[in-house]
User: Which sequence fits this backbone?
């Protein structure tokens, strides 16, 4: 800058050039940046998240996509008393247009000049909304609210559960969805208006067949209550779960009685059928008994001061399959006494009967177990006395025992058979499972579960029955039974487990005065399988004899 | 020369302003259209949800069973009615059990009429 001082004129021109050069550079860089930002920069997808007043709650659908629970918008009528000019006119117009308004209480609501908001009517029908809108009363408006509806009504209500007035899940899968937290709900959300549905493992067709046949069975045998489960053996999915009496989740006030609770998971029962099957599995798996073992059932078994009787005494020496088909308490107790207490407990723990079964359903009961284990307890536990578990838990164990010994955790959410494989855990040897399948099928052909196959010819049912006397005031009451059937079909490669439970079924002339499982729970299970077998794609295979009986029946009904 | 250049620049500015404003105007129109479409989509989705719920309450198995028992003379399939495809030929009856188009009669149409 020394030269600038020497020649002022030249210095001025240079300065001008410098400044204009600076300006040009400045503007050029701005335009370049502008051009770059507008032309080459990707526009952000969304500038801001749109605010949505309604929190989307995912729909619940069954395995075939049928909607079981969804949100519908409803309009509710409110008023701003400060803005209402003529209360008399408003009251007159509203009572004339909408039914169900009481003029007196309506006036009381509207004459509150210091209130800014008062509900007039919740859930206005679209027609009423239109009519009220056309009245044009100032200070009256509508708010959109969402209401949870269950289009299927009572069907699968125990699985679905219900929500409270604020759309918060308080039972069943609805509660499960809430307990998963906002993150889980958000992961289901597709956009901010509707969420992706939660897909259940339930098949509504199976569910209905279960509910329908069980209700018929309960009516026929005048039982107090009942329940039924269908499990997919290979995936651990619950295809149907019914507990009667049930409830309607659409009901306005949800003060349901204890009797309406889900007895298949929130109740525990002495499931003779399941526990006996487990006892056989244990003895066969430990090798303390095999199919040729024989047990003395000539006299009641005496342990200390207690005596174990058979329900229908055989009074002879029974082979192991005979103990199974005759459901002999004495034989089962003798067989289990061949295993020591520690190993007995270890086996029960391995199949999960000692612990609470936890599924997606929040309603689950802890098993009731004997406190002190001696030889007597061991003998009674062998056939289920004093050992109460959730029915669903029992179904899970039987499914595991028959599924080559691979037990799968049960689920109420849809799961692929392929995805289920790694979840399995082995509880018994494959060879033991084969022997059990033989025993189950034998019992279905010749034993107490005969009537299931008679009602569902061709579906190769095998199963175990159980009849437990109910505990009334701390004692077993001989006149009050709880009957259970746990079976599977088709027996050569079990695909589905069916469990039917009846609470206090009565004897009818048709059952020759019997009220044990084989006379009520078993035929009901047969009716269920006859209906769900075709739905589940199981091909019936008939023996010559069954074909003849069916042809005779068809002739009687005049079918061509 | 400078004046002509300036006049050109002024014209260019006017032209650019015109293009810019017309562009912005059309963009506003498009944005309004988008907002309208979004609202329409939301309301359609709501309607779909409602219709799905209604459909699901109409296909309630318990309702279908009641209707079928009332209006149809169908029976539950019996296990001996399942036939393998290669055994089908042996099971075809000589005479069709129901003659659908017998001399101008319309069996299905009659059922529908009876239902009405």
Assistant:
């Amino acid at each position: 800058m020394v030269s600038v001082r020497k020649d002022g004129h030249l210095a001025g021109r240079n300065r001008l050039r410098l400044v204009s050069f600076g300006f040009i550079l400045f503007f050029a860089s701005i335009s370049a940046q502008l051009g770059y930002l507008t032309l080459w920069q990707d526009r952000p997808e969304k500038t801001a998240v749109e605010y949505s007043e309604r929190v989307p709650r995912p729909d619940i659908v069954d395995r075939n996509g049928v909607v079981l629970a969804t949100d519908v918008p409803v309009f509710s009528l409110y008023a701003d008393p400060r803005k209402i000019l003529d209360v008399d006119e408003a009251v007159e117009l509203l009572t004339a247009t909408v039914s169900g308004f009481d003029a007196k209480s309506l006036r009381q609501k509207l004459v509150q000049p210091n209130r800014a908001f008062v509900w007039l009517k919740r859930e206005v029908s679209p027609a009423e909304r239109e009519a009220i809108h056309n009245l044009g009363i100032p200070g009256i408006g509508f708010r959109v609210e969402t209401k949870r509806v269950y289009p299927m009504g009572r069907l699968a209500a125990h699985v679905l559960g219900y929500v409270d007035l604020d759309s918060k899940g308080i039972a069943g899968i609805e509660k499960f969805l809430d307990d998963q937290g906002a993150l889980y709900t958000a992961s289901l959300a597709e956009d901010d208006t509707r969420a992706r549905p939660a897909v259940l493992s339930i098949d509504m067709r199976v569910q209905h067949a279960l509910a329908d046949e069980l209700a018929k069975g309960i009516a026929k045998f005048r039982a107090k209550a009942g329940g039924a489960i269908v499990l997919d053996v290979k995936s651990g999915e619950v295809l149907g779960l019914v507990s009667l009496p049930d409830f309607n989740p659409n009901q306005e006030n949800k003060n349901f009685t204890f009797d309406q609770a889900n007895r298949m998971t929130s109740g525990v029962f002495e499931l003779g059928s399941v526990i006996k099957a487990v006892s056989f599995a244990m003895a066969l798996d430990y090798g303390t008994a095999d199919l040729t073992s024989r047990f003395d059932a000539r006299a009641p078994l005496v342990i200390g001061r207690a005596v174990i009787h058979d329900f229908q005494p055989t009074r002879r020496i029974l082979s192991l399959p005979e103990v199974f088909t005759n459901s002999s308490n004495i034989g089962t107790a003798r067989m289990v006494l061949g295993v020591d207490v520690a190993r007995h407990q270890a086996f029960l723990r391995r199949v999960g009967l000692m612990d609470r079964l936890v599924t997606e359903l929040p309603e689950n009961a802890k098993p009731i177990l004997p406190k002190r284990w001696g030889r007597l307890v061991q003998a009674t536990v062998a056939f289920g006395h004093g050992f109460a578990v959730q029915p669903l838990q029992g179904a899970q164990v039987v499914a595991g025992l028959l599924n080559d010994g691979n037990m799968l955790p049960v689920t109420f959410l849809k799961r692929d058979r392929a995805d289920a494989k790694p979840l399995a855990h082995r509880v018994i040897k494959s060879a033991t499972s084969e022997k059990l399948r033989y025993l189950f099928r034998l019992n279905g052909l010749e034993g107490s579960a005969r009537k299931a196959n008679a009602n569902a010819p061709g579906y190769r049912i095998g199963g175990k029955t159980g009849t437990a006397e109910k505990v009334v005031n701390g004692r077993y009451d001989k006149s009050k039974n709880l009957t259970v059937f746990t079976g599977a079909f088709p027996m050569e490669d079990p695909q589905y487990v069916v469990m039917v439970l009846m609470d206090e079924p009565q004897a009818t002339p048709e059952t020759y005065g019997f009220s044990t499982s084989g006379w009520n729970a078993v035929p009901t299970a047969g009716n269920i399988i006859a209906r769900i077998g075709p739905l589940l794609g199981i091909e019936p295979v008939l023996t010559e004899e069954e074909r003849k009986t069916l042809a005779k029946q068809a002739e009687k009904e005049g079918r061509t | 020369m400078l004046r002509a250049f300036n006049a050109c620049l002024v014209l260019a500015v006017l032209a650019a302003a015109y293009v810019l404003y017309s562009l912005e105007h059309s963009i506003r129109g498009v944005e309004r259209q988008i907002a309208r479409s979004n609202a329409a989509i939301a309301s359609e989705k709501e309607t779909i949800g409602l219709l799905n719920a209604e459909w699901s309450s109409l296909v309630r198995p318990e309702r279908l069973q009641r209707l079928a028992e009332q209006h149809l003379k169908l029976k539950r399939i019996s296990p001996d009615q399942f036939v393998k495809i290669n055994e089908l030929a042996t099971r075809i009856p000589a005479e069709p059990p129901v003659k659908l188009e017998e001399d101008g009669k319309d069996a299905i149409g009659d059922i529908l009429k009876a239902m009405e």
Remarks:
- The longest strand of chain A covers residues 475-489.
- The two ends of chain A are 118 Å apart (CA to CA).
